[in-house]
Amino acid sequence: MAAKTAGEPMSGKLEAEVELHCSPAKFYDVFRNTAHHMPNHSPTHIQAVQVHEGDWDCHDTVKFWIYTCEGKLEVFKERVEYDDAKRTVKLNGLEGDVMKLYKVYNVIYEFVAKEDDNGEGKQQGVAKLTIEYEKLKPDVPL
C-alpha cells in the first residue's frame, strides 16, 4: 500500500454549484437526450462524442468523448446513469486519459430548480457538480 501525501486523501469528493440561466429541466434534457450536440455547443472544448454501446438517451449507455484539456486532446469513456425524477446524470469513468491517474472517476450533475428572485415566476436553477474520485497514486493532482 502506497503512503499518502500528508493532508491529501487518496479518495473523496469535489463539489461545486453553477447558476443556470434557464430551467434545470431544459439543461437536463441536453445531457439526457441531446448529448450528441455538445460538440456544437462547445467545439473548443469538446470535439466529439460517440455511442460505444447502447443508445444516446438510454440508461447504461457507454459513450466515448474526445475533448481538449489545457490544450491537449484527450479521451474519456463512460457509462452513463440517469435519474429523471431527480434530474441527475452520473458519468462513471471506464477508460481514457483521466483513468490513467484515477481508479475511480465519476462525475455527477444534478439540475435543481429555484424560483427567480425578481418575482416573475421564471424558473431558473443550479447545476450541482460532484466528482467522486480515487487516485491511483498519492502524488496525483486533484
TrEMBL record:
Phylogenetic lineage: Eukaryota, Viridiplantae, Streptophyta, Embryophyta, Tracheophyta
Segments forming domain Bet v I/Major latex protein: 9-140
Gene Ontology BP annotations: defense response
Assigned protein family: Belongs to the MLP family.
Name of the protein in question: Bet v I/Major latex protein domain-containing protein
Entry-linked CDD domains: Bet_v1-like (cd07816)
SMART domains per the UniProt record, alphabetical: Bet_v_1
PANTHER family to which the protein is assigned, alphabetical: BET V I_MAJOR LATEX PROTEIN DOMAIN-CONTAINING PROTEIN, POLYKETIDE CYCLASE/DEHYDRASE AND LIPID TRANSPORT SUPERFAMILY PROTEIN
InterPro entries: Bet_v_I/MLP, MLP-like, START-like_dom_sf
Any single Pfam family the record assigns to this protein: Bet_v_1
